[in-house]
Amino acid sequence: MKIVVTGSQGFIGGYLVEELLANGHQVIGIDNFSKYGRLDKAHDSNSNFLLYEMNLEEMGDFYDILKDADHLIAGAAKIGGITYFHKFAYDLLAKNERILANTCDAAIQAHRQGRLQKVTYISSSMVFENANSFPSKEGDEKVIPPPSSSYGFQKLATEYFARAAWDQYKIPFTIVRPFNCIGIGEGRAISESYEKSGNVQLAMSHVVPDIIQKILKGQNPLRILGDGSQVRHYTYGGDLAKGIYLAMISPKALNEDFNLSTEISHTVKELVTEIYQKIYGSSEELLIESDEPYEHDVKRRSPSTLKAKQLLNFQATTSLSEALDEIIPWVKNAIASGVI
Questions:
Q1: Tell me, what's the pLDDT at 36?
Q2: Which tens digits make up the pLDDT trace of 28-71?
Q3: Where do the DSSP E strands lie in the chain?
Q4: Looking at residue 196, what is its pLDDT?
Q5: What are the respective helix, strand and coil percentages of the chain, to the nearest 5?
Q6: Are strands 196-197 and 200-201 parallel, antiparallel or unpaired?
Q7: Are residues 176 and 296 located together in one domain of the fold?
Q8: Are residues 124 and 209 in the same domain?
Q9: CATH number at residue 124
Q10: For residue 137, which of 318, 262, 255, 308 has the smallest C-alpha distance?
Q11: Are residues 147 and 77 located together in one domain of the fold?
Q12: Do 93 and 127 fall within a single domain?
């Protein structure tokens, strides 16, 4: 198939494009490099990959590209960690809605007049921001209180766009919700370059790379947001890419939504301890100091993974330990080369 991926040069996008190319597809990437600037990706030189630099806040030539594609994966969005949620609360809502509306407008037209078969929308675990029972299963987002953060609210709106486009225009869809993607390939977020935690300048305000760089730079006591009891499911990007691909191609995924996540949870303190032990061999010298948490620092996000397992035969198999064995050397090299 010819597949258009918006946000192709982003964090999840990088893993996803590699997965699509590995399965023999032709991939057209759309990105405007707004988060990290231009970063080299392994897929850039692949003969089956073509990249267009384009800001989807404006329609531009997007429809002309999309009308000749079989499938669209809608992943472009302003996105970041907890610092980003609060610093750019309005932009995350307003700009992402413009991106999404233009994406859907083009997709609806391409489905009617071109060859586009379906859209796979990348949502977020943040739709479950105000969940009050666990694990969160598909459908809970319709009955729990809506997200409090503008980012979570906008991601919930993404899912409403998908369903509304089907209801009115009958464009088939699948919704996927990644949970806490971890991996390699990020750079320093341009708009977050002056954020600090203690004496260390944050890179992406994503918890795993920022904890790793703090430890590598010798921060002790280690500064963390809150008391460290926050529960997350850290899911390797390569696993998420496989899940998104299965959701894209499976007939059972038609007009369905899926949580994509590892089944294993860790508290932030457990994450910190594991990283410290991997770097220094022991956590006996580790001291932790808690900073005041942000307003939208969710205490627990825990998904049900049963639906993805039953309908897609998807299971995230990479452990946190295995992922860290790849991520820690990458962060160390990124520090040495000045990337973060």
A1: 65
A2: 999 998 766 677 788 889 999 999 999 999 988 999 999 999 99
A3: 2-6, 26-31, 49-53, 71-74, 118-122, 173-178, 181-182, 196-197, 200-201, 222-225, 231-232, 235-236, 256-260, 266-267, 288-291
A4: 58
A5: 45, 15, 40
A6: antiparallel
A7: no
A8: no
A9: 3.40.50.720
A10: 308
A11: yes
A12: yes
Query: What local confidence, expressed as pLDDT, does residue 309 receive?
Result: 98
Secondary element (H or E) of residue 1: none
Give the Å distances, CA to CA, from 170 to 160, 251, 253, 255: 14, 16, 15, 10
Which of the residues in the chain have pLDDT under 50? 192-193
* Domain co-membership, 36 together with 136: yes
Helices then strands (H, E): number in the chain?
Answer: 10, 15
pTM score = 0.93
Give the pLDDT confidence score for residue 81 in this predicted structure.
Answer: 67
Exposure string over 151-163, b if 16+ CB within 10 A, otherwise e:
bbbbbbbbbebbe
- Domain enclosing residue 333, as ranges: 190-231+265-302+323-337
pLDDT value, residue 79: 77
Q: Take residue 333 and report the two structure tokens written for it.
A: 């090299």
Residue 294's pLDDT is: 76
